[in-house]
Amino acid sequence: MKLHVVHRTRFTYAAPVRDSFNEARLHPFDGPRQTCQSFNLKVYPAPRVLTYTDFYGNRVQQFEVLPPHNELLVEAVSLVTTRNTPALKAGAPSAALGASDPKAGVERCFDYLQPSTYVDTNAELAGLAAAAAAGQTETWQVAQAIMAYVHREFTYKPATTTSHTHMREVLQTRTGVCQDFAHVMLGLCRSLQLPARYVSGYLYNGPADQLKGAQASHAWVEVFVSGTGWVGLDPTNAHIVAGQHVKAAHGRDYADVVPVKGTYRGTGNRTMHVEVLVELAEDPVAAPA
């Protein structure tokens, strides 16, 4: 599947600001599940953009706008080819929960077993996760059972949480959006010592689909399955990740993969408006005006 992605973020300030230092994690991943054929980042006012790879392997664009400005526009346009087949089928066998893969290396999973900025791990969560797993003992089956539990027990309801909402609050209200569903699933998986990481990206909603979280930044979870590697699960839609998902970045939780973040000097009175468009691409692709 060839997908065209436009992610546009506009900051508007009530008074001129200056010394704006920013990072963008918008460049789609290159890997077994997808290939980024092209990526173009436009920033206005136009700065010099530097690119580096962060600790978790994400491509980061770093830029600064020093002169006074009333608006900052960040637009990323990508062309991505994805595989329409999941890495693992629903009923695929896997190693028992807790079994380690000696070839994987502890360093690949350690950070994804720990609590993080928006995710807890504790004995109470382990009990909840074990009940959600419903007697399953294989890693892959446990992960799918936890995904199904989050999808079933939590209500997708926009505007009930913010980007800084902790999973503890979501567990109490049982409502949220894709970011919240992912954080809850991370806490449940990690409490059972199942390595799990947060993924940010996009979701293509075809004309016949009714998927939640499309045409916006989307979030899901990858779990580490011994012998296979990292496999994606989308608790918001109860889907195994395949061709409709475009991965941009991964980390311990949302704090590691914020699409656009930065600091500046000036007024705290600002507004942020985000637009996302994901559509099937034609060849060649022309960005919309």
Approximate helicity band: 10-25%
- What does the overall shape look like? globular
How many separate domains make up the residues?
A: 2
Q: Which CATH architecture of the largest domain?
A: Roll
Order of helices and strands: EEEEEHHEHEHEEEEEEE
Compute the CA-based radius of gyration.
19 Å
* CATH topology tier name of the largest domain: C8orf32 fold
Q: What do the pLDDT scores average to?
A: 92
Strand-helix topology:
Elements: E1 2-24, E2 34-44, E3 49-53, E4 59-65, E5 69-82, H1 123-133, H2 139-153, E6 155-156, H3 167-173, E7 175-176, H4 178-191, E8 196-203, E9 218-225, E10 229-234, E11 239-240, E12 245-251, E13 260-265, E14 270-280
Helix pairs in contact: 1-4, 2-4, 3-4
Key words describing this protein structure:
14 strands, seven-stranded antiparallel sheet, Immunoglobulin-like, single chain, C8orf32 fold, alpha+beta, five-stranded antiparallel sheet, globular, 289 residues
Task: Describe the protein in words.
The relative contact order is 0.24. Helices cover 16% and strands 39% of the residues. The protein has 289 residues and is an alpha+beta fold. The protein has two domains: 2-82 and 258-280, Sandwich (Immunoglobulin-like); 106-256, Roll (C8orf32 fold). The model is unreliable at 284-289 (pLDDT under 50). The strands form three sheets. Strands 1, 2, 3, 4, 5, 13 and 14 form a seven-stranded antiparallel sheet that branches.
